[in-house]
């Protein structure tokens, strides 16, 4: 009996240890929520009330936090955390209704994702958290379905795999010209010259979309609206965090980078990405830097544009009609 008790203690002890969140992971997640509470409303009005559930995917275990009703296969391990055996890839970086209608950020540890280190990882969480704001709009999922772009795909993978003609010669040529014009307009310091370039950009943008089929145009607008503006929000969030004072435990992480240092280069990094964007090779991923560039352009044209972002549907076209 004593041997049985001993082995049971070892077994359940090892199970508990496996479900204990590693200290660096806990520190990073706490820092994200702390920062979120301080900058959300500075970046986007109404963002601070958006549900912010997060699933952290580690090598063996998935940890769920800020979820009102954790699924039955999760075990509560702390006041704010539940855990289960890993099911998602450790490299996953996405936001979707993983456990019902509530959108959840599903993300691996920094080293397993494209973020690599702590501060870019937290910046990425703001990108994903903005998707939670998009998804939390009344009727958002039904409205996306009504776009008619899924062609029977109920998994949501059509958002990644839609057959947009990325490598069609005329699309490549017209997109590249539009991309260069967007960069030129963003880089223009003179106010009068900027207005001229902005009008020219708006006209060329309309011409680009007019040459696409109806569905292709809807798809590309949807991606700019969704992923491009999420990247824009990621940039604005990083810049809003420039003056943020991190906790001592976060600053003590081995890969620590100050939010001020990161903020100083995040906009330039996206501009450089846009300069190199090749729609034929990069395909869908060009929408991140291109849509972010359009968001930054709208900041100069009409700083109040974000107030009507959700009323226009899944498109930025209304901002470029005049």
Describe the structure.
This protein is an alpha+beta fold and 322 residues long. The protein has two domains: 18-135, no CATH class; 161-320, no CATH class. The chain is 54% helix and 8% strand. It has a six-stranded mixed β-sheet with strand order 3-4-2-1-6-5, with helices on one face. Helix 3 packs across helix 8 and helix 10 crosses helix 12. It is globular and about 55 Å long. Residues 1-18 have low confidence and may be disordered.
How would you summarize what this structure contains?
This protein has 2 domains: 18-135, no CATH class; 161-320, no CATH class. It is 54% helix and 8% strand. The protein has 12 helices and 6 strands.
What is the strand arrangement across the widest sheet? 3-4-2-1-6-5
Low-confidence stretches: 1-18
Class per helix and strand makeup: alpha+beta
SSE run: HHEEEEEEHHHHHHHHHH
Number of strands: 6
N/C terminus separation = 82 Å
Query: How is the biggest beta sheet arranged?
Result: 6 strands, mixed
Shape: globular
Whole-number average pLDDT? Answer: 94
Report strand %. 5-15%
Oligomer: single chain
- Count the helices. How many? 12
**Approximate helicity band:** 40-55%
- Rg, nearest Å: 22 Å
**How many individual domains?**
2
């Amino acid at each position: 009996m004593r041997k049985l008790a001993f082995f049971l203690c070892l077994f359940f002890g090892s199970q508990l240890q496996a479900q204990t969140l590693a200290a660096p992971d806990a520190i990073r997640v706490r820092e994200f929520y702390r920062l979120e509470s301080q900058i959300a409303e500075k970046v986007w009005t109404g963002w601070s009330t958006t549900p912010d559930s997060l699933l952290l995917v580690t090598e063996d275990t998935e940890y769920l936090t800020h979820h009102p009703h954790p699924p039955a296969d999760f075990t509560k391990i702390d006041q704010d955390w539940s855990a289960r055996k890993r099911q998602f890839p450790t490299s996953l970086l996405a936001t979707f209704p993983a456990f019902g209608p509530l959108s959840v950020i599903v993300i691996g540890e920094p080293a397993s994702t494209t973020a690599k280190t702590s501060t870019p990882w937290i910046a990425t969480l703001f990108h994903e958290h903005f998707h939670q704001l998009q998804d939390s709009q009344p009727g958002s999922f039904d409205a996306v379905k009504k776009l008619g772009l899924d062609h029977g795909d109920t998994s949501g993978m059509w958002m990644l795999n839609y057959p947009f003609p990325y490598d069609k010669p005329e699309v490549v040529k017209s997109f590249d010209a539009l991309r260069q014009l967007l960069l030129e307009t963003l880089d223009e310091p003179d106010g009068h010259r900027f207005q001229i370039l902005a009008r020219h950009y708006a006209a060329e943008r309309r011409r680009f979309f007019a040459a696409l089929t109806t569905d292709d145009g809807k798809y590309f607008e949807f991606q700019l609206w969704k992923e491009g503006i999420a990247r824009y929000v990621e940039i604005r969030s990083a810049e809003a965090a420039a003056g943020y004072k991190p906790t001592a435990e976060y600053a003590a992480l081995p890969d620590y980078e100050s939010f001020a240092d990161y903020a100083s280069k995040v906009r330039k990094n996206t501009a450089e990405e846009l300069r190199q964007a090749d729609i034929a090779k990069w395909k869908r991923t060009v929408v991140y830097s291109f849509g972010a560039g359009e968001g930054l352009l709208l900041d100069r044209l009409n700083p109040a544009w974000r107030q009507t972002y959700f009323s226009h549907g899944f498109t930025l076209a209304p901002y470029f009609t005049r």
